[in-house]
Write a structure and sequence with these properties.
mainly alpha, Serine Threonine Protein Phosphatase 5, Tetratricopeptide repeat
């Protein structure tokens, strides 16, 4: 009988254990089912949200946080963290906090390399190059098989470039080219090395590098960059005919280049250096016609005014400068400096009454200093105008 009681007790214990296991298993199954439902709900809802609206950003955040805050041990938790983080600008602190959480809590996540890389890019975009180098280094050391390791090698060189550590940047770019000779970024790497040589003042080396890029990568995205900077190197060396031909070639061969407007301005600059002032004005006016909303329209018009002044055509110089000063679409510095130039021309002509009128407008409408503190336009104040008024000849009294 004793043995029978023992057997019964064992059977009861086994049944209890089985029940407990079943309950736990059931709870775990329910836990993962709920986690999956929460993640699916978040994905479906976010797909239909207009994320340009702040209130929808808040809704998105709550939906994904429901997953990784309530179900942190589920297989969807790291997905939710990454999906939320990836929808936030990488320069935002919240994005970095989320990526750090993913790295800390889910070290085996498939998103580890992306999280590290995005943190690095966030630092890079903010100009925090030293911090970015450290994070890119983590990608390289911990995820060598990832395609992001290649980009990280390149970006370390870009960080050195951003820090203006030219020699270190060159070494990093050369190391990248050696490690990844078939990379799509090799042409960019070589182009950056050429730009560094320009920054160092070694124009001959720069020209040779750019020629190599154009020869080896004629259809690459960086080909127009190489063409523009090669022309610029010739310009800096005073090889004006060669520079002119190179800039003109860019406008023909790369009509969609982001350097197109700058190249057109540089064509004007070459002509002006050659004392071909009419050709220079025509080139600059063509740039204004071709790129009416370009980044350098105020610069082009200012340059035209300078050439008119050089030709002693003060009437057109004044008219062009005033056009710049009155255009509220132009940048503040260009406008204020142009207003100053109009006043200065009248002052040099000893037409003090008109100079005072222009300077008064300068003081009244351009109250802030330009970004260059020692600019002449910043030196005009009420005291300057009062001193100038002393030079205005007294008008004779009319006879009775």
């Amino acid at each position: 009988m004793r043995k029978l009681h023992i057997i019964i007790d064992v059977l009861i214990a086994i049944v209890v254990i089985v029940i407990i296991i079943s309950l736990v298993s059931g709870r775990e199954s329910l836990y993962y089912q709920d986690a999956q439902k929460a993640y699916s709900k978040a994905e479906k809802a976010v797909a239909s949200l207009d994320l340009s609206k702040p209130e929808n950003i808040y809704k998105m955040s709550n939906l994904y946080r429901e997953v990784f805050d309530r179900y942190p041990d589920s297989r969807w938790a790291d997905d939710a963290v990454y999906r939320l983080a990836s929808r936030i600008d990488p320069t935002e602190e919240e994005a970095i906090i989320l990526y750090r959480r993913l790295i800390r809590d889910y070290p085996d996540s498939e998103y580890m390399d992306k999280a590290l890389y995005t943190i690095a890019m966030g630092h890079y975009d903010r100009g925090q190059y030293d911090k970015a180098i450290v994070e890119f280094g983590e990608v390289i050391s911990r995820h060598q098989a990832s395609e992001l390791a290649e980009k990280s090698h390149f970006n370390v060189a870009l960080c050195r470039y951003g820090l203006e550590k030219w020699d270190q940047a060159v070494v990093e770019f050369q190391d990248f080219e050696s490690r990844y000779p078939r990379s799509e970024l090799v042409d960019d790497s070589r182009t950056y090395r050429g730009i560094i040589e320009i920054n160092k003042g070694d124009f001959d080396s720069a020209i040779q590098i750019f020629k190599g890029v154009l020869q080896d990568f004629p259809g690459a995205d960086s080909a127009d960059d190489a063409q523009f900077y090669m022309a610029s190197a010739h310009f800096e060396q005073g090889e004006l005919d060669v520079a002119l031909a190179d800039f003109q070639m860019l406008t023909v061969e790369y009509p969609e280049s982001e350097f197109l407007e700058e190249a057109q301005l540089m064509i004007g600059a070459v002509y002006e250096k050659q004392d071909k002032n009419e050709e220079a004005i025509a080139a600059l006016e063509k740039a204004l016609t071709d790129q009416p909303d370009g980044r350098y329209v105020s610069k082009a018009e200012t340059y035209i005014a300078e050439i008119y002044l050089k030709l002693n055509d003060t009437e057109r110089a004044i008219s062009t400068y005033q056009k710049v000063a009155d255009n509220t679409q132009y940048d503040y510095d260009s406008r204020k400096n142009a207003q100053y130039q109009v006043g200065k021309i009248y002052e040099l002509q000893e037409d003090y009454a008109k100079a005072i009128e222009v300077y008064k407008k300068l003081v009244e409408e351009f109250t802030k200093p330009t970004s260059t503190p020692d600019a002449e336009a910043n030196k005009i104040d009420k005291a300057y105008i009062l001193n100038l008024q002393q030079k205005v000849p007294l008008q004779p009294k009319s006879s009775a």
